[in-house]
Amino acid sequence: MSKRKRQDFENHHRLINSEEIFTNNFNNNMEEKAKKSVKFQQEEIFSDDVCFEIISMIDDSWFILNNCCLISKQFFNVIKERSKLVIQFNKKFTEKRVELCMKSQFMNSIVNLKVSRWLLDSVDQLKFISEMKQLTSLDIYSNRIGVEGVKYISEMKQLTSLNISEIEISDEGAKYISEMKQLTSLYIHNNEIGDEGSKHISEMKQLTSLNIGCNEISDEGAKHISEMNQLISLSIGYNRIGDEGFKYISEMKQLTSLDITDDEIGDEGAKYISEMKQLTSLNIGFNEIGDEGAKYISELKQLTSLDISETEISDEGAKYISEMKQLIWLTIGYNEISDKGAKYISELKQLTSLDITDNKIGNEGAKYISEMNQLISLNIGYNRIGDEGAKYISEMKQLTSLRQISLGFYCNN
């Protein structure tokens, strides 16, 4: 058994539906059946390590729990003690379900837990989660547990990854979260934490990935976040950050991925962002940077992924973007690009994915795009393409994804 195979067993055995293990039948019968099997096998034939090696060869988590657990008490214990499970709850919590969870033989085998939206509505329902002593990743996105619930979560010191987006925590909740010094990944999107909350979050010096979008953060909050020198991935879009705030963000020279969608950035802010030469992925969509801003962004020669949709760029901006020969993924929809701009974009011979929806591209532009033989994914909907243009696109036999053509649909005037 290779080391990689063993790691796959330990880290990726997945149970998509919590009902598979948290049921009366499973909890009441599994161990009992395992005990009965011992009557036929009074002595252990294999060591625990050998049992583990045997189990590690099986890729099906449900098969392991539903069948291998019944081989013997020894196999049952090896699975319980060494397996690492990923669980998702999809049904509303009831007192009975929580009780079943607490009694489960596999509570301490769960390392990754996701609770679907709107299932948690009280702090009491969080208590059983805290009993999962091996849990390192928790996703309770859009469960309205509020500040009191966040206070409870903050006491789970073993967590390294946490998604608490859209749970109404405000800056007070952000203060509790900032005490979780072991976290390396945090999603705290849409929680109205404001500048004061961003100050608390900026104290988490161990974070490497942060999504703090849609939180009413201004230039002051951006200054706090810019002091997080360990971050390599930052999503801070849908806030109220202007050019001055992005002057602070541009000083984060360790970032490789940045999402600043729909902030209040103009061409001056784009100039600051162009100084971040280490970026490989940038989403600057839904900002009014114009052609001048596109010129600055085109100076980021190391970018491989760029979303510059709805940024008021024309054919001139497309020309600047066409100089970014390292790009493999480009979204440039909802702009003012015509056939001339499409010709420029078609010169990006290294692109594998292109979204150029809702521009002013006609049949001629479609012909240029059809010459991009390296593309495997294309969205060219809501342009001015007719039957002739569609014929050109149909010749792109290498495409595995073609989302839209929208023949004759004039959306952008």
TrEMBL record:
> Which GO BP terms apply?
nucleocytoplasmic transport
Q: Name one GO cellular component term.
A: cytosol
Under the heading InterPro entries, the entry gives: Leu-rich_rpt (IPR001611), LRR_dom_sf (IPR032675), RanGap (IPR027038)
Highest taxon in the source lineage: Eukaryota
The molecular function terms of the Gene Ontology recorded here are: GTPase activator activity; small GTPase binding
Database matches in PANTHER family:
NACHT DOMAIN-CONTAINING PROTEIN (PTHR24113:SF15), RAN GTPASE-ACTIVATING PROTEIN 1 (PTHR24113)
Q: What is this protein called?
A: Predicted protein
What species is given as this protein's source? Naegleria gruberi (Amoeba)
